[in-house]
Amino acid sequence: MTRAGAASVGMVGGHIGVIEALKADPTMSGLRRSLEAYYGDPARDAAMDAFYAPLVRPGDLVFDVGAHVGDRLGSFRRLGARVVAVEPQPLCTRALRALYAGDDRVTVVEAACGARTGPVRLHVNSANPTISTASAGFLQAAHGAGGWAHEVWDAEIEVAGTTLDTLVAAHGVPAFVKIDVEGFEDAVLAGLSRPLPALSFEFTTIERDLAARCLDRLTGLGFTSFTVALGDEMAFALPGWRPADEVAAYLRSLPHEANSGDVYARGRPS
Question: Could you tell me the pTM of the whole model?
Answer without folding.
Answer: 0.92
